[in-house]
Write a structure and sequence with these properties.
This protein is an alpha+beta fold. Strands 1, 2, 3, 4, 5, 6 and 7 form a 7-stranded mixed sheet that branches. α1 packs across α2, α3 packs antiparallel against α4 and α6 crosses α7. The longest helix is centred in the N-terminal third of the chain and has 18 residues. The protein is globular, with a radius of gyration of 18 Å. 43% of the residues are buried.
Amino acid sequence: MTSSSPLSLLATLCPAAWAPEEQRAYGDRGTEDYCVCLLQSRAEPGRPPEASFPGGHVDLSDKAMARANLTKGEDDIRLALRITALRNTFESAGMLVAGNPPPSFAREELQKILLREGPMAFHAFLNDWGIRLRPDSLAKLAYFVEAPDVHIYLARVPDANEVGWAASGRPAQDLIWVTPSGALLLHDEGRLRLPSAQRFVLSELCEQLRVLEELPDLLLKRKQRSHGGPLWGPPLQVPAASAALIFAGLPIRKAQYSTAALSRRREQQLSRGLLEARPSTDPVSHSKL
């Protein structure tokens, strides 16, 4: 589909102990016991790399797959967004975080084929290898009205073996693991550029998920508060399956993730000790890759 189709991203978490040392962001001084996966562009002289959660635009093939697998009362766009997030995370970051993984001997070659042949190949790949995705295991974090709209989901990597397969599938990008507060500090120091919507999500993780073992409680709070809508944003008043909303959720107001709002939140986090105020003395370098 065109770049005007919705963008679906996946914030993928793993325990910090699982993240390979060579993929840890250089200068990460965050305090959480877990990391989030980011794909960062290669640094250019005088310009820090831009980093993003894995993901991409909803493709027509994602929507077709969603329609073929709908259950009663389900929205095909809601399911397609989750399929898109899973597909792109495998294509661009090498991980299948919600489904039975492909055989080890074929993984790298399959990733290359998918990147070369496009989204249609993903659905043939699932059938050929008997892979069953679990899109409903993704938790929706937030929805942002942008151009195009941005939808961000969350998943925890199932095991250390899957983390071991994490690798950027695109030559112009590097894959890094970084703590949420560490990523925010690198952004503040001008060593990493984060889009506003993703800064908002990292700030929420920094405040609401200090240790990974609290993730089930956080997601339970989402279920109780939002009737199946996004964790962060205006709560739905009816269950998501019954909501007359194409994206089964209400958007975060732009005033909450504007540059000024994020700067105010940064100061509040500093005052509460959630981020480290001391500037880094490390030489400017963006990763160990």
